[in-house]
Amino acid sequence: MSADNSSKINQLMQLQPYGTVLLSSWLSGKGYSPELQKRYRSSKWLESIGTGAMKRTGDKVDIEGALYAMQNQVGMSLHIGAGSALALQGRSHYLEMGKKEIILFGQEGEKLPKWFMTYPWDSVLNYYSSAFLPPDLGLIEHETRNFKVKISGPARAILECLYLAPKEMALMECYELMEGINNLRPSSVQELLESCSSVKVKRLFLFMAKKVAHSWYKHINLSKIDLGKGKRSILPGGIYVPEFEITVPKELIDYGTTL
C-alpha cells in the first residue's frame, strides 16, 4: 500500500469510534471511493457486514454501533424507543426471557437497509415508523462504551409505549412503566403533548398520569393540548372515563389509586 493510501486508512480509523459501523455512502462522501473501499477490504483493513456497510476487521459491532452510523452518518431519526429506551435508563422492571428485544422508532417513510435488519445482532429488532411525534423532540443521549446514541427520554418513551398499545404492548405494562417516571419536567411533557398528533396516545397518557398522581401532572395545561372530539374505545367491554372520553379495561381502573 502506498504512503498516501496508508495515511488515508489511518485517517479513516480516526473518523469514527471503534464499535461503530462504517457506511459506504458516508465513506464516499469523505473521499474514500468505492474502489478504495474495495482495496481496504482486500487488504483486511475493513470487512463487509452487508451491502453498503462495513466495520473494522476484527472489531465487534452491536446494534448501538449500527444505530450510531444511521444517526450520525446519514442523519436518520432512527432511535431506540418505548420500553427498550426505558430499560436502558433503568426504568423498566420487566425481565426478558431469551433473546432481548429492541424497539426502534423512526419517522414515517424511513426504511432501514437490508444489512441493518438481517445482520446477526444479539437482539431481536422491532421497527416502527410513524409521524405521531416530531423526529428530535424528547430524545436524550445514551452513552454506550466509547460513543453516544440518541434514545427516547422517559416521557417520549411512554408516549411510544402507548402508541403501541394495546396490540403490541399491554396497557397494564404501560401503566406500570408510567408509575416509574415521577421526576419529569412539566415543560418538556407539555411540549411533547402539544406536538403529539395521536389523540389516543394523549388521552391515555393524561389519564394514566392523573391516576398515578404524579406531581408534574398538575402543571400540565390541558387547554393547550388538542384532545380531539368524541369518544375513543381503547379495548371493547371496558369502563368509560368521562374526563378523557376513553374506554379502558376494568383492571386498569381498579389498579392502584383511583381517579
Q: Ends: how far apart?
A: 72 Å
Order of helices and strands: HEHHEEHEHEHEEEHHHHEEEH
Low-confidence stretches: none
- Gross morphology: elongated
Count of β-strands: 11
Largest sheet: 3 strands, antiparallel
Count of DSSP H/I helices: 11
**Average pLDDT score:** 91
Give the DSSP E fraction (strand runs of 2 or more residues): 15-25%
Structural class comes to alpha+beta
**Widest sheet: strand order?**
1-3-2
> Helicity range of the residues?
25-40%
What can you tell me about this protein's structure?
The chain has 259 residues and is α+β, with helices and mostly antiparallel strands. 38% of the residues lie in helices and 18% in strands. The chain has a three-stranded antiparallel β-sheet with strand order 1-3-2. The protein has a three-stranded mixed β-sheet with strand order 4-5-6. Strand 5 (100-106), helix 6 (114-118) and strand 6 form a beta-alpha-beta unit. The radius of gyration is 22 Å and the shape is elongated.
Which descriptors would you attach to this protein?
alpha+beta; three-stranded mixed beta sheet; 11 helices; single chain; three-stranded antiparallel beta sheet
